[in-house]
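Module 6 notes. Inverse folding takes a fixed backbone as the condition and produces residue identities as the prediction. Think of it as a translation problem where the source language is geometry and the target language is the twenty amino acids. Below is one complete input and output pair. Work through it position by position during the lab.
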């Protein structure tokens, strides 16, 4: 049976904690995007038109919250997005980072252990109207050249999505679960958004990822029985940051020594540094 890791591991152990997460808008919200590839609505063949929130937006906000809470506990307060990642703290372990581009200038990268997918609205978006406007530069409040798409999403709209923590210890899960609940606005420019309420409705520990918002929404005939048992008895969030932080020096120094030239146990740990994190 799959269980939480006792200490963080550099190498994949094939353990996935999947959280089914609901985000409910408490106010009308405006989603805006100036990224052409950033879809705000999507027509699913079997679900119809739905509002969607790109995972990138949720991940960005969640990472900020994890970092903010960490700083409040005075753990690596120097770690900051985007170019000042320390690559040596709980937030960096969870969300990853690239050594060379960080101010830490370390020789390793960290892969993100928090993964997710597009959040999809539970109800049909009806006939969606979006507006494409000239983007307004934040600093100068001047109309710029870039085009921007703006979309209003009515309050009470509920989105669901999955958030997965790969190879989790109880401490890692405590940090993610607690900060997900603190996610009360979404988007880089939070002021553009209304308030939201984020709830974990189901949690599952498995050796594979087998939940998705799309299939949850499709399976209306046999809705899932929510079960949060696996999240009971997690250590408190403040203690979790401290514990995780105390486990990291050993973990990363191992990585640094294995990267040094010459012989030694270079082989397998190297995998961690090969791929680029998100
Ligand atoms: Zn850091």
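Target side of the pair, the amino acids:
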């Amino acid at each position: 049976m799959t269980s939480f890791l006792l200490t963080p591991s550099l190498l994949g152990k094939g353990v996935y904690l999947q959280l089914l997460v609901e985000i409910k808008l408490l106010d009308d919200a405006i989603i805006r995007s100036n990224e052409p590839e950033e879809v705000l609505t999507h027509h699913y063949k079997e679900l119809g038109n739905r509002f969607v929130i790109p995972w990138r937006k949720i991940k960005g906000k969640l990472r900020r919250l994890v970092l903010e809470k960490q700083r409040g506990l005075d753990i690596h307060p120097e770690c900051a997005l985007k170019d000042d990642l320390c690559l040596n703290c709980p937030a960096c372990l969870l969300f990853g980072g690239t050594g060379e581009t960080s101010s830490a200038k370390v020789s390793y990268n960290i892969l993100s252990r928090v993964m997710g997918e597009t959040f999809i609205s539970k109800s049909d978006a009806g006939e969606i109207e979006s507006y494409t406007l000239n983007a307004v530069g934040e600093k100068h409040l001047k109309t710029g050249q870039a085009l921007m798409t703006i979309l209003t999403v009515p309050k009470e709209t509920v989105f669901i999505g999955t958030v997965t923590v790969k190879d989790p210890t109880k401490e890692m899960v405590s940090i993610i679960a607690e900060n997900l609940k603190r996610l009360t606005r979404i988007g880089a420019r939070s002021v553009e958004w209304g308030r939201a309420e984020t709830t974990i409705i189901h949690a599952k520990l498995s050796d594979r990822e087998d939940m998705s918002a799309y299939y949850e929404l499709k399976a209306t005939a046999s809705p899932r029985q929510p079960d949060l048992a696996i999240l009971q008895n997690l250590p408190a969030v403040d203690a979790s940051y401290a514990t995780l932080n105390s486990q990291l020096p050993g973990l990363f120094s191992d990585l640094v020594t294995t990267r040094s030239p010459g012989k030694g146990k270079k082989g397998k740990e190297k995998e961690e540094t090969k791929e680029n994190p998100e």
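Reference fact for the lab report: Confidence is low (pLDDT under 50) at residues 262-278.
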